[in-house]
Amino acid sequence: MKRIICLLVATIVSITASGQWVSPGNGTNYNLSSLCVAAYGAVSISQNGYYQIHQDITISANDILFLEGNATGIQIDDGITITINGAIMTEPRVNPLSITGDSTGTSFFTLCLGNAASGYFSNVDFQYGQHIQLLNPVQVEFDNCEFTHFSDAVINIMNCNPTIQNCYFHDNQKAAIASAVNTTSSPKILNNIFYNNDLSNANVPQINLGAGGADTIYIVGNHIEGVAQTMSGGIGIMNMGASNTLLLVSNNVIEHNRYGYTQNGTNIHAIIQDNIIRNNNLETNPNNGGSAISIYGSTTSCGAKIRRNLIHGNLWGITAIYNHNIDMGTVEDPGGNILYDNGNNNVEYELYNNSSCNMSAIGNYWGGNDASHAEDVIYHQPDNNSYGLVTFEPIMELNPDILDYRILLSLNPQITNFDEDFVFSFSEYGDTLYYEFGCVVPDLSHIQPTITLPVGVSCTPNSEEVVNLWFPVTYTVTTPDGTTKDWVVEVRIYGGVEDYEYLPVTLSQNPVTNGILSIRNETGKNVQVEVYSVAGQMLYQTQSAEETLDIPTDRWNDGIYLVKVRQEKKERVFKTLVF
Fold first, then answer.
1. In whole angstroms, what is the distance from residue 259 CA to residue 233 CA?
2. d(C-alpha 470, C-alpha 467), whole Å
3. Alpha carbons 7 and 156: distance in angstroms, whole number
């Protein structure tokens, strides 16, 4: 459920003829219980921990409203405005506080934080509101809150720098966060989820911001996903010249919207890095949108530094329109962007420089390791002499490589007798990874390995997919252009003797299925045999010069065993599965 609050100034305590209660502004601290007494008739309690607001409420400058930790919900009548000119804050709580409007109403509630106000909202669920207005408050933070079923832009920002983090915005009629183009605001939007907003299909992005203030706008670590609204975008930034807008867009996942990220206007200085921008293809007419990143400048002061983004499945990769100052990579600082499978009408468009401005785009991957392919999917001066020139060579190559393979103890709690993660080594052949264990070996039958690949490269099985490493596992690694390579990952066992010499002994059957572990000895001499559990416990010991040595296993548990065969300085260790 959802919450509400509003803001104004007053010098007397009263219920006016218009049905509004205003706090005295004399430094009074309220909680919901004491507010029921002070604002009798405007606020009531319907049951223990659950409150109702029937009239407009104003917490004046100098006064504070605490939303106590044992409150469970606040129901707000339709059309009510709660104005905070002083301060409002939630106390620590275990369960969310529900602040909700009338779901059958037509105008819903408004929460306003005005000039000089401050607010802190943690673990609050807001629903069925019109909007939350931030009208130049001093300081506001929303942490771990949920917002749903709002009829307008949920948080509407004017001339302030709120922090909005760890929140969930979903199923609202308009944008989740918005600021006006004729004001300056620099919010910090961190680690939130935005899902299926702009249900009215009103041609707005889920994050819709105007010009920034003196501080940097941070949009970092968010997941921004649309569902079906063909006019709903991901992130939109517009500055018509009010100020310099400084912007960091980093480590976001932006997917399945009309477009991913767009900036429009002048005096914008954006860093767009380390994002995944994929499948933003809901626009029905590619001429009207569908870009992963679109830079539309009214002057060349509309700038963007674009680094290390993964961009695929959009109607366009990156589009540059009219004027811009785009840096996609230089010789000294390569771009590292991965672009592939962006296009429409059966034509691939990874970069479209629909502008007379030149662009440096060195060190990016364009869907293949051939510069001629990059030329085919970059539209610039060679395609139309009115376009600016894109300098894109040398390109970045992607190969089907495994960069790192390890077993993390944090992901494999069944491993209890080791203190460090296992990092596998590369063999000299370049297609094998291995780890060497001594006689004490963990249970490797249900392991979730962590695999690091180049950005944009995939493998089968996937990273963290359960595998049985008692036997070699083959991973097929694939680049976006379809190049594949098989990597074999195996566990090796060593017995502790430095001077290994070949010992001609073998296991006649592995795995053992008939109750007999059979060792074939081709040395013609006496050998010592020891059998260990994977925990290092010796289960069997013997010596023999017989050509075939049979060891009964019918009393052993099903599982993996280590068989060590030694003759003087010669030694071999086998893994065998008994079941």
1. 5
2. 9
3. 14
